[in-house]
Amino acid sequence: MAPSCWLFWAWWVSLMLAVGAAEEHAEGCSAMSCGNLTISHPFWLSDWQTGRSCGSPDFQITCLNNTPVLPSSIPFSVGFMIMDISYEEESLRVVDICKQKLLQASNSCQGTGWNTSDKLGIPFKIDPINLNLVMYNCTAAAMARRDGELDQTRMRCGNESQVFVRTEGSYDETRAIEGCDTPVVVPVLGGANGQAITRDYEQLIGGGFLLKWQRAPVSGSKWAFTKIMLIALTSAGATLLFTCIYFLIWHKKGKRQWFLKKTSTNNEKNYEAMIVSYGSLAPKRYMYSKVMKITSSRSDQLGRGGYGVVYKGRLHDGRLVAVKFLHDCKGNGDEFVNEVMSIGRTSHVNIVSLFGFCLEGSKRALIYEYMSNGSLDKYIYSGNPKEILGWERLYAIAIGIARGLEYLHHGCNARIVHFDIKPQNILLDKDFTPKIADFGLAKLCHANESKLSMTGPRGTIGFIAPEVHYRTFGVVSTKSDVYSYGMMLLEMVGGRKNVNSMAENSSKQYFPDWIYDHFAEDDGFQACDVTSEIEEMAKKMTFIGLWCIQILPIYRPTIAKVLEMFERSLDEMVMPPKQNFCELL
Fold first, then answer.
1. Beta strands at 44-45 and 60-64: parallel, antiparallel or unpaired
2. 0.85 cut: is pTM over it?
3. I need a surface site. Which of 159, 206, 277, 310 has the fewest CB within 10 A?
4. Which residue is catalytic, options 58, 420, 438, 481?
5. How far apart are alpha carbons 533 and 124 in whole angstroms?
6. Residue 284 has pLDDT above 70, yes or no
7. Which CATH number, 1.10.510.10, 1.10.10.10, 3.30.70.120, 1.20.810.10, labels domain 377-584?
């Protein structure tokens, strides 16, 4: 085929494939139900299992416990519970979940400054039809002094009977707050002149307020089709440009594979230079053909994940190994080299051993010691009683993981922060000795560095420390691993106590709160047939876990302190305070 014909053919095929993909996905954003509401354009329900989206991110709705929730624009802040949607009027009736929970907890009108608008995304605004209520908790003398002075309505709020609500009109703010607490301002539904201000404050907040949305995008299927068509045309244009460059190189130098080979060779040389710089600390390197022989041509698969596939193998000396074949590495394979270099520096009974690696063009593999009992999540989330570990073994595993982390944080020449501690990354050998694995997200730093610099968040949702995602909470450090360890410890306690009902109960509230409510009090084990020694182990794991997940890192213990806490008796330990994101925002 002539070069000019081949160039046109490649461009045409790329364009047709991309357009075909766009047509295939143009059916997105179909109407779905959540509770008693139908969610349709411009809104769409997020699919947490696949991560797939079919509409504008600004109009994403999450269905939690069969209740539609409009997410907050502030990280780590609870959003708004949707009570009703009017597609004709383009309005929503919502309830501020965080404010409602704080009201229920304190049974008072008083609270910190609250700006509802800050939590709303760009397309939404508070409908002017709402009433902005200004509430004061005033003394009887102040009440008498203001009688007839303002358009006020008396309202009960919890145990406070001298609460006044001003619905509208100008007023002297300095005089208005004399003899009264700091006012609280909230939007609620109601007519003019306070017609609807006849209920309790709790009822008003529970009734919600109206939001309007603006500039709704094109319909879901058209929006998806438009987006994918743009991607299709961009891809086709890039393919055409790349083909032209390829054709010029082919025409001038006659080397059809030159460009691809050059790029691959340069990257491979960079990685090899990084590995060589570690000298004797670098693990053994294997040829790809040797790795295939070790795994008997990948005949015995152990597991599969987003990173690649793991196969069972055997070295020439008879040792069993687990070989992880990686997919094409993102970020030019930086995570692969990072894992080789991080774990290659370690030697500890609670850190998985890396026997070698393969780096041969795009083919990359890691050779680990074989862990016959798999990962920890298999046991703490299992509904099979035969796979549930006893408290003594769970307790020993918790201490072993802490020792492994203490080694990473303080026992190496370079301090290593793992950033992905979770049950799936804890492997168990034939004796159930825990070993920390998967160092793809780890970061090395000097031993005298107290905080780390990062270009972006890393970790697993549910185990990632708040400061890693949002730096307002504090600096990123080894205590970020302590938070992940604490969450894992609570998972171990919650999963072991009641495997069958844990998911049902914990899904109704924030999981650490569920642990706190069930185990912080003395009734945590009344329904379980356990000895006093077992109860002390479980409670100690709970106390330590709750200390480790303190939202602000300055209040968390170091991992060395955690090991000291395991050595103490339960009587010497103090229950940590219950955490609340709403109060810190």
1. parallel
2. no
3. 159
4. 420
5. 55
6. yes
7. 1.10.510.10
